[in-house]
Amino acid sequence: MKVAVLDIKGKDTGRKADLSDAVFGIEPNKHAVYLDVKQYMAHQRQGTHKAKERGEIVGSTRKIKKQKGTGTARAGSIKSPIFRGGGRIFGPRPKDYSQKLNKNVKRLARKSALSMKSKDKAILVVEDFDFEMPKTKDFIQVLKSLGLENKKSLFVLGHSNNSVYLSSRNLKGSEVLTSSELSTYKILNANNIVLLEGALEGLETNLNK
């Protein structure tokens, strides 16, 4: 699949980038996409929720009233869950929500997500660029030139670039990642994917292992 390579001003450079059909042109596997996104969302959960149960409450264990004859329910101590300040019944406990997923399924999911974006013509290929120093306004100008100013965009770099990353960090709708950090969730969450030329080889190599 041939795609025009643009510069940061949004103009055609006259060059073509060859996007592998094995990565950008497969029949999407929606179940693999579902499993990968599900795993990603599960890994975002800290699982540190905790409520004190009866045995963890600090308080007197004295029996507060006699067992029979009061006409009310029996109560062993003030730590009983039926009293204010007592323990919680079956309260949340710390839990590990992480899930395992086969590497081949994860690769298939990312290729499926990229193929979906490619089919929707939501992938741009831009020549590698850099900034002399981190400036948000420079990155905003790039977004304007590419027609992405008011859209969720994901820039995929071939290698870590601190200037580009810091320039985009304050922008809520834009994100910058390297090809090795790319995930199915990030791909689907963006309206447009901007692939830098330097990211193509590494991306296709990683997904075709």
TrEMBL record:
<protein>
    <recommendedName>
        <fullName>Large ribosomal subunit protein uL4</fullName>
    </recommendedName>
</protein>
<comment type="similarity">
    <text>Belongs to the universal ribosomal protein uL4 family.</text>
</comment>
<keyword id="KW-0689">Ribosomal protein</keyword>
<dbReference type="InterPro" id="IPR013005">
    <property type="entry name" value="Ribosomal_uL4-like"/>
</dbReference>
<comment type="function">
    <text>Forms part of the polypeptide exit tunnel.</text>
</comment>
<comment type="function">
    <text>One of the primary rRNA binding proteins, this protein initially binds near the 5'-end of the 23S rRNA. It is important during the early stages of 50S assembly. It makes multiple contacts with different domains of the 23S rRNA in the assembled 50S subunit and ribosome.</text>
</comment>
<dbReference type="InterPro" id="IPR023574">
    <property type="entry name" value="Ribosomal_uL4_dom_sf"/>
</dbReference>
<keyword id="KW-0687">Ribonucleoprotein</keyword>
<dbReference type="GO" id="GO:1990904">
    <property type="term" value="C:ribonucleoprotein complex"/>
</dbReference>
<dbReference type="GO" id="GO:0019843">
    <property type="term" value="F:rRNA binding"/>
</dbReference>
<keyword id="KW-0699">rRNA-binding</keyword>
<dbReference type="InterPro" id="IPR002136">
    <property type="entry name" value="Ribosomal_uL4"/>
</dbReference>
<dbReference type="Pfam" id="PF00573">
    <property type="entry name" value="Ribosomal_L4"/>
</dbReference>
<comment type="subunit">
    <text>Part of the 50S ribosomal subunit.</text>
</comment>
<keyword id="KW-0694">RNA-binding</keyword>
<dbReference type="GO" id="GO:0005840">
    <property type="term" value="C:ribosome"/>
</dbReference>
<dbReference type="GO" id="GO:0003735">
    <property type="term" value="F:structural constituent of ribosome"/>
</dbReference>
<dbReference type="GO" id="GO:0006412">
    <property type="term" value="P:translation"/>
</dbReference>
